[in-house]
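Feature request, filed as a ticket because there's no other form

It would be nice if the structure record came with a short human-readable summary line next to the tokens. Right now we just get the raw output. Example of a typical job, pasted below so the devs can see what we mean:
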Amino acid sequence: TYSVSLPHFNYDVYVSAPAHVPYSGTLLVNGDMVIDYHLGFAALYSDFELNDGNFVSNYAGGWQWGEPTAGGITAHSGINLWGTVLGGTYIDNVDWFLNSPELTVPSDATLYFWHYYDFEGSKTLWDGGNVTISTNGGSSYNLITPEGGYTGNISALGALGFGGQLDEWEQVEFDLSSYSGQSATIRWHFASDTSVHSYYGWYIDDVLIGDPSTSYEIPVVSNDDPRPVQVVSLHQNFPNPVRNSTTFSFALPQNIQKAELSIYNIKGQLVKSFKPNINEGPRFEIEWNGKDSSNKPVASGVYFYRLTTDQKEITKKLLLLQ
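Raw output as currently delivered:
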């Protein structure tokens, strides 16, 4: 039996656990809000909502933690993330690092994170970023390669990396099994050249080192939260990938007149839709069992779910593994 003592948070909760300890349970917050969490065999998990996850930027004007305010970019989940220059575009001739906390890499570990990027370059990738790992206390870093590889060679980095423009959130994964048992730090490295810089840069969110099928956080949806909901928000479904069922959670301001949550397949065909009773808000949970409107199981694959209101639309992506 393991126990964890946490301070009284007012909103989302996340926990980092030793690689061999699967945390699971319920946390009572401020006397009446209940948060369920399950971190499986995660060595690191953070959605950056309450704080910066103990990540460290080498330059305060470069990698920044908080809510993005430029280019219409929003976090993958919640409102906060790590990104390059949250309030505008990056500048010329920079070399910016973002380091994770030091951790012990569990056996068969995989690094997962969601990212969104906007870099100078198309045929030639002038600016961009990559991910490296140090196992010697930061004395040196080695490039690690995502499943499917990088976009190409980045001029400003002088190495392979992500380049060009990715105008939607994408989850990437890196096999860390060759570093099993070692103390390591993960680094996100961004660089730009000496010319054009009218681009927003790189944003990362929901970082996990572990198994995503057994490690996830369930956001606060309690209507006992005394704070008023100011904007429409839609959380990433949990768990994701989906094997049996998953839960969608979202919040609606009091002045919303109508809302609908719809699930679509990769072809854009409607699979299932839900119409919540907006009078029961402001926070909602909807469970989906992987079946369509005819109650037939749908095939494994990528699906999109969209929250549509009279004020705003938000779309996110999930992976179904039947």
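Something like this underneath would help us a lot:
The two ends are 32 Å apart (CA to CA).
The longest strand covers residues 165-175.
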